[in-house]
Design a protein that fits this description.
Elements (H helix, E strand, L loop, with lengths): L29 E10 L3 H13 L5 E4 L15 E2 L14 H24 L11 E5 L2 H16 L4 E5 H8 L6 E5 L3 E2 L2 H10 L5 E4 L6 E3 L4 E5 L2 E10 L16 E10 L4 H5 L7 E5 L6 E4 L5 E8 L8 H18 L8 E11 L6 E6 L2 E5 L5 H16 L5 H7 L12 H11 L10
Parallel strand pairs: 1-2, 1-11, 2-8, 4-13, 11-18
Antiparallel strand pairs: 3-7, 4-6, 5-6, 9-10, 10-11, 12-15, 12-16, 13-14, 14-15, 17-18
């Protein structure tokens, strides 16, 4: 398949829409010869480039972003930097070490982000107070019991909460039970990646609006772009589901399109009815349930729609239609705020694997890849990007070992079965979601 710039479309919706205009770095033009090239300036690529720059201070690293920083998936998620993953179903004794391994990766990424945000004074609404995992309907309430036993078995700090306690904190009567997991951070995701991009080490050169259209074999590797080329000794693919467009993981990774809406800024009276916490995040204990946030800038953000859309963003017309789903989820949680309009809507694409695994390691001669985070990319992508820089440089660490231990990806059939299978895979997430949507 021959790629063109139109294969990397974007829009100006999302968390970046809430931020001031930013001066973007120039697109790449001409021919460049570098030691390292990194494709993708999301959390994974930014973490990898930052680490490579410190491992190789005398080498130039070029970081190529197909869009503008903050307009990709890393700036379109709900802004949860998790330390503790939720695994569906009852606790499996044989999976205990795998649970711990994944949580070690999450925690490593959270620690790295915390340090980078503090070191570079990045203004991204960082709040490290954990999250609420909540349940409203039968299947999610049952899942809450499973999750509680998992947290107890792994000795993870948490506080169980009943419906009245959740209402006192969050201002909604919808949830019947839940758990506050103490670890984890909330962020403004577009502000985070912008801040990370604007504080890269001096030997990293970032080029935005610079999609890679092809990767040629040989030594050095040759990357073709609309207005130039890069010849690199080593290449890191940090483009998550879009690695498929460049010929990698095509039978193992698909894109699921999620969408949500932001309210306008709440006034003092409206905010006073939302419980004792002035900023919080809720993750549904049903894997197809809504993600809800009260943000630092006094908006409610709700994401409760996911679908297979060919790994593409929704059009403005599609997004307008999805807002009826967002509205229904909002009104049943906050009926006293039914008069509050939505001011923005957005969609984003996450990379999901059939068996929920991640991808890390060598993909070919001097080509390395990390991706497939299944919705947990803020902290995990940071950890994977950092570890991949070490691994590609010949280094070794416990974090590298944990990343390399990811289970092999399950095969996804080719088209047209891919589209049909992906459609039903994404749709199955909502089976039995009920009130949690």
């Amino acid at each position: 398949m021959t790629l063109g710039s139109s294969d990397f479309p974007t829009d100006r919706h999302g968390w970046a829409e809430l931020l001031p205009e930013r001066h973007a770095s120039p697109p790449l033009s001409g021919t460049h010869r570098v030691a390292w090239a990194v494709i993708g300036a999301g959390v994974t690529g930014l973490a990898c480039a930052r680490r490579l720059a410190r491992l190789h201070p005398d080498r130039e690293i070029v970081l190529l972003e197909a869009r503008l920083v903050g307009e990709g998936a890393s700036g379109r998620n709900s802004g949860f930097a998790v330390a503790v993953s939720h695994f569906d179903g009852a606790l499996k004794a044989g999976e205990m070490e795998n649970y711990r391994r994944i949580n070690r990766i999450n925690q490593a990424g959270l620690d790295l982000l915390r340090g980078q945000v503090a070191e570079s004074a990045i203004d991204c609404q960082w709040r490290e107070d954990g999250f609420y995992h909540a349940a409203a309907d039968r299947l999610a309430i049952r899942e809450c019991g499973y999750f509680l036993r998992y947290l107890e078995a792994l000795e993870i700090a948490h506080t169980p909460l009943d419906g009245p306690a959740l209402k006192a904190r969050l201002g909604t009567t919808l949830y019947q039970t839940g758990i506050h997991v103490h670890q984890g951070a909330l962020v403004q995701p577009a502000a985070l990646v912008r801040g990370l991009a604007d504080t890269l080490p001096a030997n990293v050169t970032l080029h935005e609006a610079s999609p890679v259209l092809g990767i040629g074999d040989g030594a050095p590797l040759t990357l073709s772009l609309p207005n130039g080329q890069v010849r690199a000794d080593k290449l890191v693919l940090a483009a998550n589901h879009e690695a498929v467009k460049l010929g990698y993981l095509g039978r193992y990774l698909v894109g699921s399109t999620l969408s949500g809406s932001f309210t306008r800024v709440l006034n003092d009276e409206e905010l006073a009815g939302l419980g004792s916490r002035k900023e919080w995040g809720v993750l549904s204990l049903h894997h197809g349930g809504a993600t809800v946030r009260l943000t630092a800038d006094r908006r409610i953000c709700l994401r409760n729609a996911a679908e297979y859309n060919g790994a593409a963003l929704l059009s403005d017309a599609q997004l307008a239609r999805r807002q009826s789903i967002h509205r229904a989820g909002f009104d049943k949680r906050f009926p006293a705020l039914a008069h509050v309009p939505f001011e923005y809507a957005w969609s984003g694409v996450e990379g999901i694997s059939r068996n929920g695994t991640n991808f890390f390691g060598r993909q070919g001669d001097n080509i390395y890849l990390a991706g497939g985070y299944n919705g947990s990319g803020v902290s995990r992508g940071t950890a994977f990007g950092t570890a991949l820089a070490d691994y590609a440089s010949g280094g070794h660490s416990p974090l590298v070992d944990d990343c390399l231990a990811s289970a092999p990806g399950a095969w996804i059939p080719p088209r047209p079965f891919l589209d049909l299978g992906a459609f039903f895979t994404v749709r199955s997430r909502f089976r039995g979601v009920g009130l949690d949507r």
